[in-house]
Specification:
Distance between the termini of chain A: 52 Å
Number of helices of chain A: 10
Strand content of chain A: 15-25%
GO molecular function (chains A, B): methyltransferase activity
CATH superfamily of the largest domain in chain A: SPOUT methyltransferase, trefoil knot domain
Largest interface: A-B, 43 and 43 residues
Protein name (chains A, B): RNA methyltransferase
Number of domains of chain A: 2
CATH architecture of the largest domain in chain A: 3-Layer(aba) Sandwich
Shape of chain A: elongated
Oligomer: homodimer
InterPro entries (chains A, B): Alpha/beta_knot_MTases, Ribosomal_eL30-like_sf, rRNA_Methyltransferase, SpoU_MeTrfase, tRNA_m1G_MTases_N
Domain tRNA/rRNA methyltransferase SpoU type (chains A, B): 118-252
Order of helices and strands of chain A: EHHEHEHEHEEHEHEHEEEHEH
Radius of gyration of chain A: 20 Å
GO biological process, one term (chains A, B): methylation
Largest sheet of chain A: 7 strands, parallel
Chain lengths: 261, 261
Amino acid sequence: MKTITSRDNVQYKELVKLAGSQSARRKAGRTLLDGVHLCQSFLQLRGMPEQCVVSESALHNPEVMDIVGQLEAQRAHVLALPDALYNGISQVEHGVGVMFSIATPEREVTAPVSVSAVLLDGVQDPGNVGSILRSAAAAGVTQVYCSAGTAFCWSPKVLRAAMGAHFVLDIFENVDLADLVRNAKVQTLATSGYATQRLYDVDLRTPTAWLFGHEGQGVADDLLSMATHQVVIPHLGQVESLNVAACAAVCFFEQVRQNLT
Amino acid sequence: MKTITSRDNVQYKELVKLAGSQSARRKAGRTLLDGVHLCQSFLQLRGMPEQCVVSESALHNPEVMDIVGQLEAQRAHVLALPDALYNGISQVEHGVGVMFSIATPEREVTAPVSVSAVLLDGVQDPGNVGSILRSAAAAGVTQVYCSAGTAFCWSPKVLRAAMGAHFVLDIFENVDLADLVRNAKVQTLATSGYATQRLYDVDLRTPTAWLFGHEGQGVADDLLSMATHQVVIPHLGQVESLNVAACAAVCFFEQVRQNLT
């Protein structure tokens, strides 16, 4: 384990940049997994990180000691920082001071969609994207395709909201969704307040690609018209719309229900 | 319409306090509805606000002109601010500059729960609380009871996330949930990862009180043990938990589905 105590250290300055700037993360092709839960999930599902950073006070935490022990047994890089320096790169308040620095997984689309998947067309809020990833992973939907206008999946906010779901998903970003929908080997479903077919009346026991859109405008019209089914989630109240992450959860778990019953 | 141009104006300073401080809002018993959609919803569902505040540039927006016209016809207070001053009290980026100042609706629990309701036990994230309110309103669940540890429902962040759902709901805060569950006239359902009964196997065609808990710890054990049913949302993926707002959406719309089929 190496300890850094100066804010002027080159490695520390690099971490500050990664923590604070989306463009720095994109440029470096790296991101930070902040907090015990994300680090444990990564270790369990994806293996060793390039680097682990711990705060000095966290070195007494049993969960952190366990993580650091596993890493040092594999001779991975562990960097200890005084709490003041650690807090300069962490966005988690009152958290336990441990984070991994990892290379951002980048995937190219090489084949048409042939299993259940979620397609995000300009979903902007990182909390929504994270929640959708988490729900998808829980429902057994394993592929995620994002348009260029969707929040960057490997940003710290999306990672926190998804609670480790990233590590069981195949995530593709900057995808041409029209092309993907056109060539899909599975049915594609888009929700729309104007649809007449009810979600509950579609057979979801086959693999399904779910298409969700921008928080305000929904799925773009051209994509909507290409979907196999446009469906509506029936409402019983005076309010006629749902948050996109809530909508996605209802869809994914209707598929789970149909598959289990 | 009155125009204020000085930051030292007493009325403006009052608005700055309301915009920036939860304790100021609680002390004054007032809150701000920021943005066209919230203002339109309030006007339509609850009537006149005590005060409307508009930015000078928004006075040319047709939707804002319509709102201001309705208010002035009723001799309601409209306050115009130069954009620089307006931006000092607005938390909506790139929004259209209109907000209402309203008295925070406060309700006392006077009767046991006898219709479908949602009970929030320490749900902390304002975005989650807002999303749950929005889903409840869409599913026809009309009553919301919050424990003391739950995010304040009338904060700007919760209001924004709920997109006007507040105005079709009866919201009770600082409620003793144990007392409420004990005396409920309807079945109470709590979700728990440890439950064995599946959500889909409970008859939801009768009014139901839904109990959701803290993002990390879930529903407190004493409350959980008092619920009529503890249910699990079955998972098909490797991730075994859902965001609380996603979980609530799945529950509410399973109730909708059962009521419609």
